[in-house]
Design a protein that fits this description.
By secondary structure, the protein is of the alpha+beta class. It is built from eleven helices and four strands; from the N terminus they run βαβαββααααααααα. Strand 3 and strand 4 form a beta hairpin. The chain starts with a strand and ends in a 6-residue tail after the last helix.
Length: 234
């Protein structure tokens, strides 16, 4: 197996986390997305979407992170993706929830435009501020749902006592808030769950580049949060 990936990508990190959890031996090829490796002729021939992750296993090629996670889990019979139809449907449901509205509003709407404004922000400052305010409202609504509906209050993970594939996707998405020092204190169950996921050995193995990036940004940041949450220049 071969995985085309970038360690800082929120699409790749769930796959890298799962591979670390299960000790999978996968050949890794790292693409520099900031340098435009994904638009090279060679990689466009591999994935016309010009996006990572991509998994190759013999003649099989998968170009979506959720499908890659499910395939890898099925290949080894991992408990992260239960065989029982009802339990599996619940995992699928949570994965879809994170991959649709949550990712749109929280990741792409709120966090990435602030963390990387040159790449994901709007050139007009007034528009950037207006869109961030809208995304902030919507993202907080999704976090309310995660807090009150998806996270069991009598267990550590979305999957209960042990994490499942939805925990891998969810924690990697939610954790990008660290790039802008997002305050999770209004959601104590989300905070506890994220802390449990970040405390796992596999997280330390797979997310070291991401955690280092967050630490570098914290050290370099001098603008108060009140300014950048409104989309003002940093």
């Amino acid at each position: 197996m071969k995985l085309y990936q970038m360690p800082l990508s929120d699409a790749c990190r769930p796959v890298l986390l799962f591979a670390a959890e299960e000790g999978l031996a996968i050949e890794m090829e790292t693409l520099d997305l900031l340098a435009g490796d994904q638009f090279s002729n060679r990689f466009v021939a591999i994935n016309p979407n010009s996006a990572v992750p991509v998994l190759e296993d013999g003649a099989l090629r998968l170009t979506e992170g959720s499908a890659i996670l499910k395939y890898l889990a099925d290949c080894i019979g991992s408990p992260f993706y239960p065989r029982d139809a009802v339990a599996r449907a619940r995992v699928n449901e949570r994965m879809d929830w994170f991959n649709t509205g949550f990712h749109r509003e929280y990741c792409m709407g709120l966090i990435w435009p602030q963390a990387m404004p040159d790449r994901y922000g709007w050139p007009d400052a007034a528009m950037q501020a207006a869109l961030l305010r809208r995304a902030d409202t919507q993202a907080r609504r999704y976090l309310d749902v995660l807090e009150s509906h998806w996270l069991p209050h009598d267990a550590t993970y979305l999957g209960g006592v042990n994490p499942d594939l939805s925990d891998c996707i969810g924690a990697c998405y939610v954790s990008i808030g660290a790039l802008v020092e997002f305050d999770f204190s209004p959601w104590p169950h989300v905070s506890a769950w994220l802390g449990a996921m970040r405390g796992r050995d596999a997280w330390q193995l797979s997310n070291e580049p991401f955690e280092s990036w967050c630490a570098q940004r914290r050290a370099a940041r001098s603008t108060p949060r009140a300014a950048w949450i409104l989309g003002e220049p940093r």
